[in-house]
Amino acid sequence: xxxxxxxxxxxxxxxxxxxxxxxxxxxxxxxxxxxxxxxxxxxxxxxxxxxxxxxxxxxxxxxxxxxxxxxxxxxxxxxxxxxxxxxxxxxxxxxxxxxxxxxxxxxxxxxxxxxxxxxxxxxxxxxxxxxxxxxxxxxxxxxxxxxxxxxxxxxxxxxxxxxxxxxxxxxxxxxxxxxxxxxxxxxxxxxxxxxxxxxxxxxxxxxxxxxxxxxxxxxxxxxxxxxxxxxxxxxxxxxxxxxxxxxxxxxxxxxxxxxxxxxxxxxxxxxxxxxxxxxxxxxxxxxxxxxxxxxxxxxxxxxxxxxxxxx
Length: 311
What we know:
The protein has 311 residues and is mainly beta. Helices cover 8% and strands 38% of the residues.
């Protein structure tokens, strides 16, 4: 069986790594480090059971499938540089090491005629130099490696005009001890309101940053029933034992393209609800051509700071 990795936790610089994240200027820049990790055997089994390129389901042989390219690429309207990570799927026996792709030619061009070849760094990371993401522009990612050419095209959406956030501390009734003794477990809940633009369809994704890292990647959702209206909802900040009153977190709202939305949505659905005994495990949908796996996320970012309350 072939596996690919998912960037989820330690983030060294929001300018550097935009996998499951946006890019922007927040922390001092440091040399890129490989923060790709295998989250769990269960998650990777579900995620790799049949990734798709565009809308085609890829059937992967359990033991003998050839390695496939995995792309984790992001650009945003925030200042660069932007980083792209390339790796290969591995067999079950090779799960302890995710091979980086070296020596690839990686290019990004936009609809204004600008074109840039990215600089190779280490551990499969490639970095832009002068490229700047502009809402409304179309971006084309081209990757040449091992005699094959992969491509993905996405237009950068416009950022949301109004985003209102609030945070509250409340009893976590879902984790109360059976006997009722001891302190009540608490949780933090973020409330949000998005003033959704009605001119076009929008796809959203929340990211939470805490202590220089990506703390949580929340579900992707769209405005199917709320186009041009106020979208109001809430989500829980998980693993709240890491929080102390007065701590600051950054909540980032990404307005993403439909291709990235389909990837994040189906990846989360596959990791969250399918059984290994299911006849048809859900397949994350890639927007990389030629049977490439992963995603090209061209997003606009709106972010807000929140302070963890005492009560």
